[in-house]
Amino acid sequence: MKVQKCFNNQSGAALVIALIMMIVLTLIGLASTYTSIFEIKLSGNKRGTTDAFYAADSGVQIVMANIDNFDLSKYDVGNKYNYSENTDNANPTQAEIVINQDTMNQGGPRGFGMGTQQVEFIHFLIESKGHDQFESSLIKSNCQIDQKVVRLIPIQQGGN
Predict the structure, then answer these.
(1) Which residues, 6 or more positions from 121, have their beta carbon under 8 angstroms from its beta carbon?
(2) H or E stretch including 4?
């Protein structure tokens, strides 16, 4: 009879403990899922911004690699040359590149350290806008890099 009494005296404590443990484990699982989703989105955004930065930087590097881009005969009336519109130009990352002649700046760059008698200085500003190249993201990252460039042109001296 004591055995029957022992079974009759249980109050369901094991069931309550098991339910509490299931709730705790479910909350831990949900928290780790949300954290993983957040980390994936964060790393995707970082990848997009890095991609946009390197696209913009490649635009600047492409322009600076060819001195013909600073030939003033290519520039329009507003002293602007839209590099991206010319289909003959190399532009693998489809950066939007515009080169402006900076007519407000005259003379040598600050701290140039050499006489400016034999050299003419032409100032330019390269504006390169890069975009995220990955197609699956809904929000595209953009980056703009502005680079100042000074072209030095020797002035021909009178014949001796």
Answers:
(1) 106, 107, 108, 109, 150, 151, 152, 153
(2) helix 2-8
Q: How would residue 132 be classed by pLDDT, with cut points 50, 70 and 90?
A: confident
pLDDT at 158 over 80: no
Length of the chain equals: 160
Give the DSSP letter of residue 138.
S
| pLDDT class of 27 with cuts at 50, 70, 90 | very high
Q: Is this structure's pTM higher than 0.85?
A: no
Instruction: Extract the tokens encoding 77.
Output: 């009336």
Locate 136 and state its tokens: 């699956």
Cα 39 from chain centroid (whole Å): 19
Could you tell me where the beta strands, DSSP code E, fall in the chain? 80-82, 96-101, 119-131, 142-154
Please say whether the beta carbons of 46 and 134 come within 8 A: no
